[in-house]
Amino acid sequence: MTRWFEDITIDEVFDLGSHIFTAEEIIRFGQLYDPQYFHTAPELAPQSEFGGLVASGWHTVCIGHRKMVDALFAEEERLRGLGEEPGVSGPSPGVNEMVFKAPVRPGDTVNYTLSVSAKRPSNSLPGWGLLFNHLEATNQNGELVYRAELVGFSKLRDFKPSLGLRLALWARTVPVLKRLLSR
Amino acid sequence: MTDKISDSLKHYEDLEPGLVIQLGITRVTKQMIIEFATEFDPFPFHLDEQAAKKSLLGGLAASGWQTAGLSLRLLVDAFLSKVDSRGGLGFSDLKWKRPVMVNDSITGTVTLTDLRQSESHPEWAIMTLEFDIRNQRDEPVMTMSLANLVGVANPKNKSAA
Asked: Does A49 touch chain B (CB under 8 A)?
């Protein structure tokens, strides 16, 4: 959530809401990113392992990501409404694990939840922390669709850079010094 | 059942670990980045050049999920559409090593590092596919390990490998 790194509670579960997958969007995503016939061709898909059209696992994951981003923005708005300054989410360095379980078929409703299972300050990026996000997607029958361990950067609120680091960051703002430093 | 889709495709018996799959190339345009981000990853650093310059990415860059999706597409075109793929099991150790900026191209290789017949479902084998995605300067962009099922043509002949 776009709270400050310091304010994030381990294992607090956030409901990110649901998404209903239509055949049209399953096929559109499949044609762009995963054109295997069981994701793109409803007339051939019954021959497949799945017995019919199913969403690409990557599609269900991309929708899960969108749900997470929407929840971050909503939390940001909520904090602003309370007169507080929200935290800052950064890009993600990667995904430790993603396990696809039940397939998603046209008309399925998938619900997503997010929790932070661990956090620590980043070793490589001073001023930022790492969040280990646990995401779960379940369908309308309560079956697990996927679970994932994702890593995300989150800015530290209470970070006091050392004098050496402040000098280094300042030097990067001076064009001549930046050129020298980046050699 | 002579015209089953899977009959014309490669099976477990036709594959060997060590196979290196050369991927095609995709150029990532500003329009592609903004369209994907609008639908799936609407952080300002994937949508707006000014916001992107101030972010950790240093400029407008594709969502990591778009890089992953485009890499998967390259693998489907080069390999997964030619084998009897029975779907993905998941992936691990996905690392976004460098952002993909406007007009960068991505390509790379995927190596079949492991192939084993399933104990519980002898009609399936599990392929481990290691991605090494690079940009036009041959800099690493993304790595990951994908687990995907492939059909076994003769499940009763245990141990074709």
From this structure: yes
